[in-house]
Specification:
The structure is a single chain. The protein has about 80 residues and is α+β, with helices and mostly antiparallel strands. It has three helices and four strands; from the N terminus they run βαβαββα. The chain has a single domain, classed as Glutaredoxin (3-Layer(aba) Sandwich). Helix content is about 40%, strand content about 25%. The chain has a four-stranded mixed sheet, covered by helices on one side. The longest helix is centred in the N-terminal third of the chain and has 16 residues.
Length: about 80
């Protein structure tokens, strides 16, 4: 089963905001959110550093900084 991967940082308020907005959408589609703290992995930190939060589904970046709800819904509808 696919999961929404949310790359972020523990101290990032944008990450908290995106996650809070994403949770009801993920629940609506029966998807789980996998939280990944980029500060725990130097390769991820180098990749996403100033772009967090970054939301990825099946290797495709759906949005960063802010939730792109229409794009996320379209992506989730495509796998439902």
């Amino acid at each position: 089963m696919s999961a929404l991967k949310l790359y972020g940082r523990a101290w990032c308020h944008l990450c908290e905001d995106l996650r809070a907005e994403l949770e009801p959408i993920a629940a609506e589609f029966g998807m789980r959110i996998e939280w990944i703290d980029i500060d725990m992995d130097p390769a991820l930190e180098a990749l996403y550093d100033e772009f967090v939060p970054v939301l990825v589904l099946d290797g495709v970046e759906l949005c960063h900084y802010r939730l792109d709800e229409p794009r996320v819904r379209q992506a989730l509808a495509g796998i439902a």
